[in-house]
UniProtKB/TrEMBL annotation:
PANTHER family listed in its UniProt record: BLR5612 PROTEIN, SLL1039 PROTEIN
InterPro entries, A to Z: ATP-dep_Glu-Cys_Ligase-2 (IPR051680), CP_ATPgrasp_2 (IPR025841), UCP005522 (IPR016450)
Protein name: Circularly permuted type 2 ATP-grasp protein
Taxonomic superkingdom: Bacteria
Residues annotated as domain Circularly permuted ATP-grasp type: 76-451
Transmembrane segments: none
Species per Swiss-Prot/TrEMBL record: Craurococcus roseus
Length: 474
């Protein structure tokens, strides 16, 4: 008898929604009706289609850059309505606290004066932008798009691993993964009530218009560094989904009256809101790096004058810092007078002597991360590291303790994943995307990233990870 897809699948001691969540029963039954050979055939067809559609990301090395298809695993991740209610409310709470925090540190700085967060941790942060002091933003919204990385531990509890409040990427894969499942596995979705993901573009456009200067029909554009950026596929995708122009810095100009214009074949056209996918440093050569050829001279003048909206706001990188992350539960209580719905992972801030000593004494047990890096770079996973890697990590900690935090090595949840012709458990995380204008909306599901290497805990695409379609049941 041909092998069924989940025959022999065993998540071991790890949490797995497919095995332990009753909500996934319908999906389990439909997978049981598929042979492994049929799953592999359809998965190969899906991979070929992703390549044909140009749904890629760019991996940079020291010598070259290569476009790759983000590996797509065709076995969906299934979240119950109850699980999603917890995630959604927790993400909304966290985004609210992030926006309160950012408004405060660029205005009255009460949280610093009250000693809830160390002032030097914020004011000395490389991503703190003094040019934003006193700038008032519509609805006090700094983080218009937030990607909150969430994991499940061995008990099934949800925890926030980090906040991505600058230019979080990956939402294009969320929508395209659903499109791919609809094309390749229509029988698996038939009759299953799923929360939709197709309206992300209209939701984002609406939020950007809510923070734009008050004009009748604000013009929104998406500002990209260009086709060599690793997330360029997503820039094209989102511009199309919103129905707005995709521009580069050379397409925009700022006039003496601090207004932003777009060059078009019909002449200049006013721009009121910019969804920018360019980091602060490269955004305006007048205000930041003078050698930047990606940005728009004078853009900060227009922004400070309230003539244009930028999403996300300049200076949100402070909230991305992994040391500031450790204080977010306190910030939630300080600003919202609420207990956090989603817990933080226990975090040791190595700039503090006691935390540094603990980290050095337990290096083999901990995950050590640089505070300002993203994409899984610079991480040392103690239980998986060689003696040489541990000693190199120790040297870095002693040389620059303020640049690192450490956390326990979690037993991340797993999901059944097709790898090299077999279905095996692989570790996953979840990045829900929250869109905020006057209020916050969370895209149902988000990006499930999966570590394709056996035993690996690093899910980032730049480190060999893939993605799954995330199903939130209605």
């Amino acid at each position: 008898m041909p092998d069924a897809v989940l025959n022999g699948y065993d998540p071991g001691a790890f949490w797995c929604e497919m095995s332990q969540g009753g909500a996934a029963q319908t999906v389990r039954d439909r997978l049981a009706a598929l042979t492994l050979d049929e799953l592999k055939r359809r998965a190969a067809d899906a991979d070929a289609e992703l390549r044909d559609l140009g749904i890629t990301f760019t991996v940079y090395s020291e010598r070259d850059a290569a476009d790759r298809v983000l590996p797509f695993d065709c076995i969906p991740r299934v979240l119950s309505a109850e699980d999603w209610a917890t995630i959604e409310s927790g993400v909304c709470q966290r985004v609210s606290a992030l926006n309160h925090l950012l408004h405060d540190i660029y205005h009255d700085q009460k949280i610093l004066a009250d000693g809830v967060i160390p002032a030097d941790l914020v004011l000395g942060n490389a991503n703190y932008r003094p040019v934003m002091r006193g700038v008032d933003l519509p609805h006090r919204t700094y983080v218009n798009v937030c990607g909150t990385d969430i994991v499940r531990d061995a008990s099934g509890g949800f925890m926030v691993l980090e906040d991505n409040a600058r230019t979080p990427s990956g939402v294009g894969y969320v929508v395209e993964n659903r499109h791919m499942m609809l094309r390749a596995f229509p029988d698996m979705l038939e009759g299953v009530e799923l929360r939709p993901v197709a309206d992300y573009g209209s939701r984002l456009l609406g939020a950007l218009r809510e923070v734009a200067p008050p004009v009748a029909d604000p013009q929104v554009v998406l500002l990209s560094p260009g086709p060599y950026n690793s997330a360029y596929f997503e820039h094209v995708f989102l511009a199309r989904e919103m129905g707005v122009p995709l521009v580069e810095g050379r397409d925009l100009l700022v006039t003496e009256d601090d207004r932003v214009w777009m060059r078009t074949t019909g002449g200049l056209a006013r721009v009121e809101a910019i969804y920018r996918r360019i980091d602060d440093d490269y955004l305006d050569p007048e205000a930041f790096r003078p050698d930047s050829a990606l940005g728009v001279p004078g853009l900060m003048r227009a922004y400070r004058a309230g003539k244009v909206a930028l999403a996300n706001a300049v200076g949100t990188g402070v909230a991305d810092d992994k040391a500031v992350y450790a204080y977010m539960p306190r910030a939630i209580r300080y600003y919202l007078d609420q207990d956090p719905i989603l817990a933080n992972v226990d975090t040791h801030i190595c700039r503090e002597p006691d935390a540094l000593k603990y980290t050095l004494d337990h290096l083999e047990e901990l995950v050590v991360k640089p505070v300002g890096e993203a994409g899984g770079y610079g991480i040392t996973i103690g239980p998986r590291a060689s003696r040489r890697e541990l000693e190199e990590c120790r040297a870095r900690l002693l040389a620059e303790p303020a640049n690192y935090i450490s956390q326990p090595c979690l037993a991340l949840s797993v999901a059944p994943t097709l790898v090299e012709g077999r279905v095996e458990p692989r570790h996953v995380d979840l990045r829900p995307f929250a869109v905020t204008g006057a209020k916050t909306w969370v895209l149902p599901g988000g990006l499930t990233r999966v570590a394709l290497r056996r035993g690996s805990l690093v899910v980032n695409s730049s480190q060999g990870g893939g993605s799954k379609d995330t199903w939130v049941l209605g």
